Description:
By secondary structure, chain A is an alpha+beta fold. Chain A has 5 helices and 4 strands, in the order αααβαβββα.
Amino acid sequence: MKSVSKDARGFVEGVISHLKRGKSGNVTPKVQSLLLKMTATAKHEHQAKVESAVKLTSTEIQAIARVLSKVAGHEVSLTAEVNPALIGGLRLTMADWVMDSSIRNELKEMASIVTVS
Amino acid sequence: MEKLGIEPSLLLAQVVNFLVIMVVLQKLLYKPILTMLEKRKREIAEGLNLTQKMREEEERLKEKQEKALAKAREDALQIIEDAKKQAKETEKEVIADAHTQAAAIIDRAKTEADETKKAATSAIRREAVDLAVVMAKRLLTSVMGAKEQHALISKRIKDLESWVAREEKKS
């Protein structure tokens, strides 16, 4: 029981310190990995969806659309949606490809790591 | 002879009578008696002989019986000794088998207890982590204001842009 409560406490503390370090850790390798996994079907898609916990500014939407267009190699039209369940971060969807860098997903992955160990 | 008052003819007749009587007695009395005595003697001798033989046979049988009894006693002792040995070996085997079974039961119980403990710990851990996730979500939802949200989104976009820039440089 002690180790379990220690795990839970460590988990919450880890998330808080993670946020204190600048709201995000070094996610570049993860983003890189997710971008590299973009499927051929997704690369031929012209429509994409971005979800966030708060409403995105037009600058943010344009920046994301620009990045996706570069990755896909053609113009991509982006639809923005607000999804408070994400807590923070972004969730991009293009055809069958999903790049989830939301806090909800990070929490899910962290919980999975703690549970497995 | 006459002076002595002995009549020769009478004497002769008496001698003849005597001889006749002797022959008659010899034939009718002495011989059967002697034969009977001889037969009786032989029977007694045979009886004695038979008695001796029976005594010897009895001795022999007695000796044989004693030997048989001794052999039977020895065999019985050997059987008892063998049975004791067998019983001891069986006892040892039963004890060893019981020890093995007990050890196996203990091992199985330990394994089951460990598995149960692991499963319980794992379940509790999962529940604790789920609870922690819920707590973290609530905490983060309350902590993350619009400023923090946009800062995080900007960070994510910068990550994406820097990766794309690196890929463009590579190609």
